[in-house]
Amino acid sequence: MLRYIVRRLLHTIPLLIGISLISFLVIHAAPGGPVEMATDLNPRATAEYRQRLVEYYGLDKPLHVQYVEWLGRMATLDFGQSFSRDGRQVSEKITERIPVTLGINVLSLGLIILVAVPVGIYSAVRKDSWFDRISTVTVFTGYAVPAFWLALLLMILFGVRLGWLPISGLVSLEHESLPFAGKVWDRARHLVLPVFVSAFTGLAGFSRYMRSNMLEVIRQDYIASAKAKGLPERKVVFRHALRNALLPVITILGLSVPGLLGGSVIFESIFAIPGLGQLFYQGVMARDYPLVMGSLVIGAFLTLLGNLLADVGYALADPRIKTE
Amino acid sequence: MKVSRIIAVAVAVAVLAGCAKKKEDAAGEAAPSSGAAPAYGDAFVEGSIGDVSGFLTAVTGDSASHTAAGYVFNGLVRYDKNLKLEGELAESWEVSPDGRKITFHLRKGVTWHDGKPFTSEDVMFTYRKMIDPNTPTAYAEDFRQVTHASNPDPYTFVVEYEKPFAPALASWGMHVLPKHLLEEYPDISRSPLNKKPVGTGPFRFLEWKTGAKTVFEANPDYFEGRPYLSRVITRVIPDLATMFLELKSGGLDMMGLTPLQYTRQTETEEFRRSFNKYRYLSFGYTYLGFRLSHPLFSDKRVRQAFAYAIHKKEIIDGVLFGLGQEATGPYLPGTWAYNPDVRKYPYDPERAKALLAEAGWKDADGDGILDKGGRKFAFTVLTNAGNDSRAKTAAIIQQSLAAVGAKMEIRTLEWSAFINEFVDKRKFDAVILGWSISQDPDQYDIWSSKKTGPKEFNFIGFANEEVDRLLEEGRRTFDIEKRKKAYFRIQEIMAEEQPYVFLYYPDSLPAVQKRIRGIEPAPAGISYNFIKWYVPKGERKYTSFQP
User: Fold this and answer.
1) pTM of the model
2) Which one of A85, A92, A175, A269 would you mutate to disrupt binding with B, by most B Cβ within 10 Å of its Cβ?
3) B43-48 and B231-236 as β-strands: parallel, antiparallel, unpaired?
4) What's the confidence (pLDDT) of residue A43?
5) Residue of chain B whose Cα is closest to the Cα of A162
6) In the structure, what pLDDT confidence band is assigned to residue A323 with cuts at 50, 70 and 90?
7) Rounded Cα distance, B498 and B129, in Å
8) pLDDT by residue (tens digit) across B188-214?
9) What is the chain A residue with the closest CA to B541?
10) Hey, how many other C-beta atoms are within 10 angstroms of the C-beta on B417?
11) How high does pLDDT run on average in chain B?
């Protein structure tokens, strides 16, 4: 098993290099570079100034040299310095935003599992019942509704009309002066809308998956025999069926790993949450190459890691699967 | 001057930038902001669609950063509420009779936020940093004109120029940097001060939560008196819809409204109870620019015909809900350089047709499109994607021109492709774009025939000997009357030549929470007296920020 994991990890290295090379070429192929973005149609910027910026960012070197240099720095886990005028390290910019995005995504994923698993099971066991139909319509509504639109409606209702919840941000302006319990309460109130919107719009996939897995398992002979030997339905469903139906869920969880750090720009903009999605978007708009490359490499690595975790988890949970 | 970008950064932040005179018809909009006595305390919360990128304005270019830095730093000079230059860190200044030497007399007793005294050493240091090749600044050009700088004593700073250069005076509005805190950093953009500024300004830096907010507190030792508001908090809210909801729910105290919000979404009792709305011209204009070497547009009569054919009032009503003013040239009404008596082009499609006919354009084959020598009058106008008002403007112009027999296609392009692939390579027939208008009327970079090179700003290729001479004249004298004469004449020529069809000046439309008092609209907008804004004692909202 250990050998398998090590081998898989080694396999990710050429993959990562390939992904980074493609990303590097694509971002450089986009019209305008960081210098143009900062100086276009700004009469203050003279040709001399533009030239100086080009040298300042090291963009005067041939593209392949730039890539190799970048790769060399990456090998030592140095993400480089952002092209933005704060001149901060890319790694610092990314890490300071991880808690925000990760926190909200973990909460939302937790909420999704908490709701989707029972809904999926119940819909499967009571297939075509009223509950099944209503839940189907509900989760697909959530799937179809644009997150920004739902968010705005909820903000108007709970933020402006009723005044129960804050509209945007993560903490209130007087957060620092609150006692500890007050701080926790303040944070929780700010998280209600973002976590709800994110969970509601993401519910469909998980609950539908759970339902179809469950349906498949229920049709199996061993469930029929369990029923036939007179076991109560509760036991049949939870002890025999659920365990098997949960297996494929591991795959989904593994695939969710990169998503945990991938923030959505629209979602974060609407709620004014300083997460990774906004950071990446602004990086792209300003052609902040080191920041964009850093974000992409982290995303690629997490995706590969997620796949690996899913495979390993699967192998551990299901004795029929061999890793060799 | 900087062209307004795809993202209407202006909407959120332009409120604090310079603005022009308040229009009479808006007089009733804002209730007199008196009532209770000024008191210290409370916080002022504003929204910004973008985060700060650094606090040293020498090396930043975005408006969010410049607004934030304006709380902390001062320049030697600034524009007052009537848009005249006045001393800030300089108590006064003299220009030598030949216009080549400026002597600044600095204020005494000013201290940096860390308690160290401010002296001419700091000004000298700032000047040296501005011309230092290690400083990645876009503002070096103005300072490179200086041939000699000296600080004979701690409160005097003298600069000499080879030739008199009028815009130079305003360039000393550049924020003065603390020498003792920056000396050891060869590149100031990488110094800690760019993240935690220490200045001489009315507010002291407290906190910058990247992507979320910046917080400043009143400087009790400010040389113009302690500001009444104890704190200024700028929240980053990238979405304008969210920002508007925050404003309505009380989370923000000020926001620049869109014309739609101003006319349709704030005309409620509820909104009026809590907010004052203001309206005045913003410092910018939108135009239709021609590539003057294009066979269609090299004829002046065609450009004049366009000016008659385009219904500017209709554009303002349709795009801005009437919240703007028809533009006549590149200067703002109400400023000293603005010439009100230039040739006007009232909407007159018949005259447009006559002028086009005079230029040889007739509809010979009767298909509704003019032609000349077998060539149809058809062209494409380019504008940047994501700017809704420019797209709508283009559509209205398209209709107006079709009525006089000119066929115009509209193409919207992503910003950097638009600039790099089309404007820079001169691959366009006509463009719809906007310029913001600087307080100093020197527009050499936009209109001089010497500025038509790659990446320069006279991309339409305007060349007029008289304008060239007048532009030079205007920047080589400090005498306002002489400058005025030059710029007045330039506007007459522009109105005659129509290198652009100047379309409109949009209004700035800030809404401010009613508990904030002391706001007095002036030609410069409302924010010039920010340190005098206050909240009466009984109306405080944020009680944990006591003075």
Assistant:
1) 0.85
2) A85
3) parallel
4) 67
5) B249
6) low
7) 41
8) 988 999 999 999 999 999 999 988 999
9) A174
10) 15
11) 89
